[in-house]
Amino acid sequence: MELQLSYFLIPVLALLFCFFLHAHRKKGKTKGLPPGPWKLPFIGNMWCLVGSAPHRALRDLAREYRPLMHLQLGEVSAVIVSTPQMAKEFMKTHDLAVADRQQVLAVKIILYDCEDIAFSRYGNYWRQMRKICTLELLTAKKVQSFHAIREEEVCHLIESIQSSVGSPINLTEKIFALLNVVSCRVTVGRRCKHQDILIQQIKLTALLAGGFDIADLFPSYKYLHFLTGLRPKLLKIHHKVDQILDDIIREHRENIEIRKKENIGETEEDLVDVLLRLQASAGLEFPITSNHIKAITMDMLSAGTETSSRTIEWAMVEMIRNPGVLEKAQAEIRRVLKGKKIVHEVDIQDLSYLKLVIKETLRLHPPFPLLLPRQCREECEIEGFRIPVNTKVYINAWAIGRDPDYWNDAESFIPERFENTSLDFTGNSLEYIPFGAGRRACAGTSLGIANVELPLVQLLYHFNWKLPSGIKPEHLDMTETLGATAGRKENLLVIATSNS
Ligand code: HEM
C-alpha cells in the first residue's frame, strides 16, 4: 500500500514541480530578462558561439528566440536584437538609454582608453566630437575636397592592374592597400611611413573590437589578459603606433609654424590639421589633448580602410557570381563614361545602377555585421523585458538584412530590389542598417561611399574579370572572417582582361 501511494505521489509531485517551474519561467518572460538558450555554469552561453562567425551563430539561435534574446557570455550579460521592430525600440525609442559603447580590452589599449569617437562613452565629450565630425571633419564639402587624392590613387591601382593583365592578381590585397593609402592621405596628408605597422593595428582592431575575446568575456580575471598573450601583444604594437602618431602630430605642428612664419595662405587641411586648429582655438567645452587627436586619427584610419575595402571586395565577388549584374553595371558605366581615358568623380554622379549594386552589397555584407556593440547606460524596459544597466547590446544588422519576412529571395544578390524604394543609408528604415541608426550611427557615411564608388567604377570600366582556371563562380568560398568586421576569409584572386 505504501509503495502504491509513492507510485501515485511521485508523478503528482513531479507535475507540480513542472507547473511551478513553468509558471516561474513565464513570469520571468514578462518581467525579467529576455529568453535565451540554456546557460552552463561559469561559461553561460559561450558554447552557443563555438564554430561559426558570431553574427551567423546568433542568427541561427534567434530563429528560436527572436526578436530579442538574452545570452550570458562568461561574465558578460548581453542581449541580441534580431528584427527591425526590435532594432527600432533600441535605436530609436530607447536610443539614449543604449547610447554607450562596449569598451573592450583591445580598443581601450589601441584607442587611448577610448578617447576616440567611435568607442567613447556617451556624454559631453562624445557630443562635442560628434559635432566636430558633422561641422568640420566629415562634412560633404570636406569629403569632396579629397576627390583629387582618390582619383590619383585609384589611377595608380588601375596602372598596377594593367601591368598584370592576363595573370591572376590578389585583388583583396590591392584594394586594402589602396584604401589604406587614401585614408592616410585624407587623415594625415601623406602616405604613412611604416604602413605595415598601422595595417597590423587596424586588422587587430577589426578582429577584436566585437568583444568576443576570452579576456573580454571574463573582465574580472585580469590574469587572462596576460595568459592569452593578448595584452602584451596589443601593448607592443600600440607602443609602435603611438610613436608613429607622435611623429605625425609633431610634423603637422612644425608645418603649421612654417606656414605662419612664411605667411603662406590657407592650404587644404587634412583631418589632423583640422583637429590641431580646433585644439589651438579657445572655446571648446572639452579641450582636445594629443591623446584625443591620436585616438581620433586611428578611428579615421581604421574606419576609412577596413569598411570601404571590404565593401568593394564583396561587390566584386557578388558580381562575379552574378554575371548578369556585372554586365549591366559595366554597360551603364561604359555608356556614361564614353571612352574617357581619365575618370573624375564628377563623371560618375549619375550611375544609378552602380548605386543599387552598392546598396545590395551592403545589405548582404554589412562590414560591421553586429554594428559596433552598444551598452545600456540606464535600466530600461523594452517590450516588457528588463534590460539592466551595463547590458551589452548587439544589433544583428546582418541577420536583419537577410530576414525573409522583409526581403524577397533574401539570400540572392538582386540590386534591382532597391529600385523605387526609399531605403537609404540614414538608418531611418530599420530593415536596412549597414551604417547603423540613431545617435551612434556612422559619422562617415559620405566618405565611406565616396571611397567605394570611384574604385569600383574604375575596376569595372577598365577591365573585364574572370576567375583563374578551374574556379567556378558558384564555388567561390563566401566564408567570412571572424571579428567585428566581416570580410571574406579567402583573398579574391582574379584575372583582369583589358576592356578595349
Ligand atoms: C562603407 C563604409 C562604412 C560603413 C558600412 C560604416 C558603418 C558603420 C557602423 C555600422 C557604425 C556603428 C553604427 C551604430 O552603432 O549604430 C559606424 C560608426 C562610425 N563610423 Fe562608419 N562606416 C563606414 C565608413 C566610415 C568612414 C569612412 C568613417 C570616417 C573616416 C567612419 C566613421 C565612423 C565613426 C566615427 C563611427 C562612430 C560613431 C559614433 O559612435 O558616434 N565610418 N560606422
In whole angstroms, how far apart are the ends? 97 Å
Quote the beta fraction. 5-15%
Shape: globular
Give the helix/strand class. Answer: alpha+beta
Neighbour order of strands in the largest sheet: 1-2-8-5-3
Uncertain residue segments: 1-30
- Describe the main β-sheet briefly: 5 strands, mixed
Bound molecules: protoporphyrin IX containing FE
H/E topology pattern: HHEEHEHHHHEHHHHHHHHHEEEEHHEE
**Strand element count:** 10
| Arithmetic mean pLDDT | 92
Over all CA atoms, what is the radius of gyration? 25 Å
Task: Give the count of helical stretches.
Answer: 18
Helical residue percent band: 40-55%
Description:
The structure is a single chain. This protein is of the alpha+beta class and 500 residues long. 52% of the residues lie in helices and 8% in strands. It has 18 helices and 10 strands. A 5-stranded mixed beta sheet has the order 1-2-8-5-3. The chain has a 3-stranded antiparallel beta sheet with strand order 4-10-9. Strands 6-7 form a two-stranded antiparallel sheet. A hairpin with a 2-residue loop joins strand 6 and strand 7. Helix 9 crosses helix 12 and helix 14 packs parallel to helix 18. It is globular. Protoporphyrin IX containing FE binds next to helix 14 and helix 18.
